[in-house]
Specification:
Length: about 500
Amino acid sequence: MKTKGTLSMLLASTLVLSMLSGCGGKEPKVSGEPETSSLYQQVMARFDGKLEQGAVVKVLENDTAVELGYVDQLIEAFNTAYKDKGISAERMNIDQYSDLATDGPYGYGPDVWYQANDILMKYADNQHLLPLPVYDMECYDQIPQSAWNAYAKEMNGETFFCGIPLNVQSGMLFYIESKLPDNWESQWDVNSNGTPDFFETYTALYAYSEECKKGGQKTTYGYLDETVDTYFMSGYLMTYGAYIFGENGTDPADIGLAAGEAYKGARMIQQWAGEMNNTEVLDKTFSSAAYQYMADGMMLCTVTTPDVKRMFIRSMVNTGKWTQEEAEADLKMIPVPRLPVSADLTADRWQDTITRMEELTVETSMMGGINGYGISAYTECPNASLAFVEFATSYEQAVARNQYLGVAPAREDAADAIAAQDATVGILFDRLDRGKISIMPAITEIGQLWTPAESFLIDLSTDPFRADRGEPLLYDTDEKIQEGLERLVNQIRDAIETLA
């Protein structure tokens, strides 16, 4: 534990930040000359370029990146590059989550933390993260404004950045090509475009999933997913007009989960829960089981984020049925299918959603995020920490992270370099630019979303099982679903007001 004197010094070092307040709605300044205002210079004074000799930068990284070996490679490469400069880094051997507000002041937290923008930026709101001198960093011009926006914070009318974007996240559909039905080209390609119909619309995927339940297919299930996962299921609501917070995620007074025709999306979540008829999808631990489910042929496809691609491949190889090279070639990752305008997944004429796709379906929106690095306001080695962040966000490491994990780099030069081998990068940036990825709000109030939203999804998804047991349903009409969404909004609002 730090001494009282050291703690006082650490807290004093963030005094300038405590005098600054507010996160406004101005667009970040991500082009042009570096800021030269006195406030900018004052806030950036901690980064004087003098590496703290003997400093060991404590790095908290993503669990999957640790498990698949990327982080050890990164640490080793950094330590080799800075061997003669008197600094080094080490990986913190703890879970990927931290509480800088609690751990930071006592020296238990990380110096550098890799996380999603919404998790990092809630600490920026309370001055636990340092604004960074991004204008002087090599990666500055390579990262698009849409990614910088996720880490922007307005202080006294000026825009600062409390994180460096590293990769773009959103839901993608994963499947194993060799598990496709042998007759898909004759029976499941109505428009003869070379893409299975069940990967073009969710209505067709529902129909194919019904076929899997009858038996005779290569997999037991078609599509399986956690119907209680707010991050992924919120896309169903957003497709029909819902949103989390107003003003591009900055206004927690405006909660939009019941907006538009959000009830349509909720109705489809309920339909999927009934079709899947598997209580495992009501448990958030399903995500960790999904890799083996797919490798074992239990399901054809699921939706998750690109950063776990290697987890699927490893599970495939571990079955002994694929080599590494075969698994990499057989696993596919594509955009999520389109949703029906009618919100009826059970339509008998699913073929119509293929032949009249533009008329009868709508492109699905998804929740997304920008993962990156932040530096703790309590670090005793800000310059060494910045050196590590610059190294970890370099072109070489952005490419390496993609090779290890399959993530889409936020750096445009790295994205361009791997685009020919990994189409996911172009897909994600295109969807982000067209507003089909809603970036997770990066304000403290987002923490009040998860518990009530998950409770609503559990109740919604349990209705099909209640029906099987002859019990009364909670959400058997659109009106009741809408009322449930409005109650959810009120619960979130009450939680936010209590927090305030």
